[in-house]
Amino acid sequence: MATFLYKLGRLSFRRRHLVALIWVALLTLAGVGAAGAPAAGNGSFSIPGTEAQKAFDLLEQRFPGTSADGATARVVFKAPSGEKMTDPGNKATVQETVKELSDGSEVVRVTDPYQAKAVSKDGTIAYAQVSYKVSGMELDDAAKDALKDSAQDAREAGLTVEIGGDALQAVPHTGSSEIIGIAVAAVVLVITFGSLVAAGLPLLTALIGVGIGVSAITGLASALDLGTTTSTLAMMIGLAVGIDYALFIVSRYRAELAEGREREEAAGRAVGTAGSAVVFAGLTVVIALVGLSVVNIPMLTKMGIAAASTVAIAVLIALTMIPALLGYAGRKVRPMGEKGKLLGRTSKTPGRPNLGTRWASFVVRRPLAVLLLGVIGLGAAAVPAASLELGLPDDGSQPVSTTQRRAYDLLSEGFGPGFNGPLLVVVDAKDSADPKAVFAETGDAIKGLKDVVTVTPAQPNKAGDTATITVIPGSKPSSVTTENLVHGIRDAGADIKADTDADVLVTGSTAMNIDVSQKLNDALVPYLILVVGLAFLLLIVVFRSILVPLKAALGFLLSVMAALGAVVAVFQWGWLADLMGVEQTGPVMSMMPIFMVGVVFGLAMDYEVFLVTRMREAYVHGEKPAQAVVTGFRHGARVVSAAAVIMMAVFAGFIGSSESMVKMIGFGLAIAVFFDAFVVRMAVVPAVLALLGRKAWWLPRWLDRALPNVDVEGEGLRTASGDDDGDREPVRV
Fold first, then answer.
1. How far is CA 73 from the centre of its chain?
2. Of 536, 483, 480, 395, which is closest to residue 74 (Cα–Cα)?
3. What share of the chain is helix, strand, coil (3-state, %, to 5)?
4. Please, what is the Cα angle at 277 between 721 and 609, to 5 degrees?
5. In what order do the strands lie in the sheet with 72-78?
6. Distance between terminal CA atoms of the chain?
7. How far apart are CA 427 and CA 443, in angstroms?
8. How far apart are CA 697 and CA 618, in angstroms?
9. In sequence order, what DSSP letters do the residues of 556-602 get, joined into one string?
């Protein structure tokens, strides 16, 4: 591995014009493809194998032409104080609005509140429902403007009017904080390297890699049915790992220059050593992201594969374009320890150990105290995770400043909290002798359940073999009571199935959310076993040890639990909510735990590989275990710390997103990187290695012989060039 990458690094350095041309051509090709591609939609959301999805598919089959995927809008009217919606003037205004709404070319139908009995009992609130042919993301701007204009006309007539539903759904934006995150990364790079040129290389290559990845995703979005969130998450992860991978190779290049090597040789060795760590770190991230496919939620699978592809591009760019750009930079990239005029000094103080060395020496002297303090601290941060509640966002989770949220509140006020999360019961009586009797029996059974406010009469299809029943719960959609009602209807349906051979299925957004949460919970353990197991095997090959990969996995569990605790504290409990821009607290996104587990595991293994390979490199060349820990920190702590700060800055930049899922993931990943890099990898890892001593690097001889030698430490390079240290013999481990 190291020898191949060494040759690749030297080749890229020599053939820098060709390498740069290839990557620029790929960026241009991807950009042209993205520019000419249709706009990305919201991405279809299907959950194979769930009852809610089965019912949804049955509806499309038995009720053709219903535009089940089409956008909907609920235009909610509230009468002025002291008036009723049934007053002649208010009624005329509503009917005029309904007439205006019906004129759109993309409108399928508009319900009249007075004919559909969509007026509250006290007469103060009414709503009209608009159904469209296309989804909210595909809806023309003209149709959205017509919807807003109709509402504004009713407002000018004296009514309070708000619009709910997904018809006004907008493409999420990340805000200026994303730019701030990149700016922070730039400042950290300048401080780390003391040179604008050296600092610019990781930023440039990361932006090129993300540009190629995101442009390719955008170009394929329509064909592959990728949602807008997919490209945002790919950008988030691609930027973070792209900067980090380039940072490690540039840092190793400067270290090789400091040892007196020529620039081409230094570039080859940097790619051969640090590049090997980049390859295996990238593999762990790719495994974690692609492993999301085991959940069998297409949207999550596509997000994981898209982000993994961006990571793979970041690895390839780091291995090829970084040495090419180092060739262009020439003497503007200085050896390690030599600063430019930018920071006002030319060399570090002779003989004074750096901060990483001093910290590692302290940990080695007090390993048990540091270990206990780190574990107890992370355990305390993880406590809120015990109160984790999962759900998917609806209009009730929108900021109170939005018209969707105000419409949600008006409907709750007029019709009860459960009105915003109706349950759609689909009765398939095709195999029953008397479908009409089955429909009536199902309705009566549902009426007898707790927390049921309204059960509409069954609405059969033209064939008369399938019917829909709408159930309005008494509780809000995200409540445990509503979840219990869904399970109660399904239990009653099982009894009806036994008696009549009719299938009773519950669907709708609320039931779909419940099924998603359950599916994700069921998949979490198999996912952990698969991803952690594969990465464990990979790390055994890299470190040639059993206990080091085991320690890495346990440290990751500490990090991710502490990060989930922080997410619960902020987004569910409301701690520091104002600071994070969280206007509405509620259940944590159902996909958040499993997605965060996948991404954080990959990133955690990044730091493990980068830091511990330096320790192993020192150990196999004769240093004692404790001294090897200190040596690893002397060479790697500064760079790993800079990489972690950069990654935190990039992730934190997405907290400003208007998309609640992106905001939550940005915060979760940023705090997880903090816990993992600065608590687990910088404190717990050296403490455990100091306590284990030589046992940390133990590997059964039979396994040592069976494993391939990937030579992450670059031993093959040392042997080939004959520059092994003369006073130290390699240690067999």
1. 28
2. 395
3. 65, 10, 25
4. 125
5. 107-110, 125-132, 72-78, 160-165
6. 19
7. 10
8. 12
9. HHHHHHHHHHHHIIIIIS-TTHHHHT--S--SEETTHHHHHHHHHHH
Is 565:381 a contact under the CB 8 Å cutoff? yes
Q: Are strands 390-391 and 459-460 parallel, antiparallel or unpaired?
A: unpaired
- Per DSSP, which regions of 124-199 are E strands? 125-132, 160-165
Hey, how many other C-beta atoms are within 10 angstroms of the C-beta on 516?
25
Q: What is the pLDDT of residue 303?
A: 83
Tell me, what DSSP letter sits at residue 684? I
> Two tokens at 617?
């490199």
Angle at 187 between CA 216 and CA 337, to 5 degrees: 110
Relative orientation angle of helices 196-224 and 298-329, to the nearest 10 degrees: 150
424 strand-pairing partners: 470, 507
- DSSP letter at 330? G
Q: Do β-strands 390-391 and 588-589 pair in parallel, antiparallel, or remain unpaired?
A: parallel
**The predicted structure's pLDDT at residue 606:** 75
- 199: tokens are 């600092």
User: Distance between CA atoms of 296 and 49, rounded to whole angstroms?
Assistant: 9
Q: Rounded to two decimals, what is the model's pTM? A: 0.77
Cα–Cα distances in angstroms (integers) from residue 400 to residues 161, 386, 397, 509, 571, in the given order: 15, 28, 9, 21, 15
Helices (H) and strands (E) in the chain, counts: 24, 11
Q: What does 190-249 look like in DSSP terms, one character per residue? A: HHHHS-HHHHHHHHHHHHHHHHHHHHHHHHHHHHHT--HHHHHHHHHHHHHHHHHHHHHH
Cβ atoms within 10 Å of 186's Cβ, excluding its own: 18
Rounded to whole angstroms, how far apart are CA atoms 605 and 95? 62
Which pLDDT score, from 0 to 100, does residue 346 have?
45
Residue 629 near residue 694, CB atoms below 8 Å: no
Phi, psi of 506 (to 5 degrees): -110, 130
Which bin fits 591, alpha (ψ -120 to 50), beta or left (φ > 0)? alpha
Q: Quick check: 434 and 407 in contact, CB under 8 A?
A: no
Instruction: Note the pLDDT of residue 487.
Output: 93
Q: What is the rounded radius of gyration, in angstroms, for the C-alpha atoms of the chain?
A: 30
Q: For 296-306, how does the pLDDT look when each residue is reduced to its tens digit (9 = 90+)?
A: 888 788 888 88
Residue 454: φ, ψ to 5°: -140, 140
What's the pLDDT at 410? 92
Structure tokens, 445: 């059974």
Answer left, alpha or beta for residue 585, where phi above 0 means left and psi between -120 and 50 means alpha: beta
Pairing of strands 390-391, 503-507: unpaired
Q: What is the pLDDT of residue 552?
A: 85
Strands 466-473 and 452-455: antiparallel
Closest residue by Cα to residue 488 from 452, 521, 453, 459: 452
Task: Point out which residues pair with 452 in neighbouring strands.
Answer: 473
Q: What angle do CA 459, 464, 470 make, to 5 degrees?
A: 20
Kindly state the greatest CA–CA separation across the chain. 100
* Residues in the chain, pLDDT under 70: 38-46, 65-70, 135-138, 169-178, 222-223, 225, 227-229, 337-351, 393, 658-659, 711-733
**Token pair listed for 549:** 């990969």
What gap in Å lies between CA 423 and CA 434, rounded to an integer?
Answer: 24
